[in-house]
Amino acid sequence: MEEDMEKKIIKGRSYLRRFLRRFRRNYLGIFGAIIVFSLIFMAVSASTLFPYPKPRLEMRYTPPFKDWSVPLGTDNLGRDMLALIFYGARTSLKVGLGSIVLLFLFGVLIGSLAGYFGKWVDEILMRFTDIMLTIPTLFLIIVFLSMFEVRGTNVIIFAIGVTGWPGLARITRSQFLSLKKTPYVEAVQVMGGSSLRIMFRHILPNALPPIIVVLTFQMAGAILTEAGLSFLGLGDPTLISWGKIITQGRVSVATAWWESTFPGIAILFAVLGFNLLGDAIRDSFEVEKVG
Amino acid sequence: MIMALKDYVVRRTFIALPTLFAISVIVFTIIHAAPGDPFQFFLGFNPRVSMETIEFLREKYHLNDPIWVQYISWLKMLLSGNMGYSFITHRAVSDAIMIRVPNTVKLVLTAELIAILLAIPLGTISAVKEGGIVDNISRVISLLGVSMPSFWLGILLILLFAVRLNLLPTCGSHTTGMVYSSTWESIKDQIYHLILPAMTLGYLRTAYLTRLLRSSLLDVLSKDYIMTARMKGLKERVVIYKHALRNALLPFVTAIGLAFGFLLSGAVLIETVFAWPGMGRLIVDATFTRDYPVIMGTTMMTAVMVVLANLITDIVYAFLDPRITYD
After folding, report:
1. pLDDT tens figures, A61-97
2. Predicted model pTM
3. Alpha-carbon distance A206 to nearest alpha carbon in chain B (angstroms)
4. Which of A66, A98, B6, B25 could form a disulfide linkage to A157, CB 3.0–4.6 angstroms apart?
5. What domains can you pick out in chain B, each with its CATH number?
6. What share of chain A is helix, strand, coil (3-state, %, to 5)?
7. Whether A253 and B272 lie within 8 Å, measured CB to CB
């Protein structure tokens, strides 16, 4: 009974408003969104709030909460931990955003071609997807990285993007498979719309909700992967990265626990933020379980 | 049944071969498409090494041949049971891998076992008492587990259990240079070394598997046959353990098997934190030195392990679900 009432009320509102209405009620999702906005704030304001953290050896290993000019203490080179965390947010978001753009391009292109054209196109593309899934992702990324002598941020984004698309491709494919049989798509086909137009003007917008959900989770995944690669020493050597600070702090963990603890908490929150946001978006879109 | 199973395994193995072949082509191409080579990379900056020496080495390891010629000679070698020799250590790649594989398998299987043992009770209680204390605690455990960088958790555990409490060793797979008085001593030492890395990896898997079992059990509990079972007047215990849990375990088993690759990826980081001598360390080190044969061999070995895990999953699945036949 209540369900019916709700349906009646919601009926007639736009999809977006219905989405926002549901989202507002999801407290964990709002918490996730707050984390994500803080991350964006940290990334954007890093260079305004803090000068680039320069080594100050006379300050090295200052414990946190002692000297309020460096509230979170300093690392082994005397750099302000708080500033490092802010600059690290920049690297994480950059890698995350870059990766999901690439993932979107590869995943949606391959998934939509396979789902829309079916037959041998589907057969070949899905076979290829299965093959990619057989090699553990991190191994595949490492193989890609071994191609490059200098592993800059762009190389890392490329490696994550070019290896991570199979999951997204599968979901896009299944969306296209079911949507291409709907009356509205058939109508456009009858009217003589080109395949390209049908795929990207008519089907894709309707297939977007689950794709957005997956991309939000992939953002979390990309941040974790970047941290892991930096930890392994395969990250961009010129940038400040949370993973790299953890590695650096690992040797002195017994005496200076804060050096590897704070960046870890930063990663934890960043990833948690995107995961919670992804959960909430999924629930608010009324998307079936994905990701 | 046994014959059908044997046929099925043989057939599946033959289907897996083209996949492995394709993987070898892709990985080989990626590695060798890179500009430069290990010798230029390593020795190019050394003024004492002449261009002639580098050229000699390139020629010696056939790096000047067209890529498909190199691939065919690699494949021929592989089919005769030789994975080539490391450019750096000159040891046979197969030897290096065979020393590492058991360590990785030991780590990964222990972690998975811990995860399964924790996830089944946690997931079951969470689903049966949805919204209860256990459900909420396991939700927090899971959210943290899927969001936490594994290597960071490893470092924190080392700090707590090895440095502060001094209960467990910090790294390695056994005490170096130790002479054991008995086999039991040796096993005990290895178990001590295994606890922390397996716990770290196991926690991350628990987080995932608990959520999975919870949602699949919730799904099953809403089915009509559960209501029928309850209406028959069966005890709630029987309904949950005999009717619901058994069916909910099917997707669980699939997830365990199919996520084997995911586990291997996770192991790379854990092995680095705990200096665990496994496959992950091998490939990371090989990447720094661009040791082509080692990178190639390790990647192929992980792919074979994933294919095997998938095969075993299918077989277990068929045992659990009588509707599936081997045809």
Report:
1. 777 777 777 777 777 777 888 888 889 899 999 999 9
2. 0.85
3. 26
4. A98
5. 2-79 (no CATH), 100-320 (1.10.3720.10)
6. 75, 0, 25
7. no
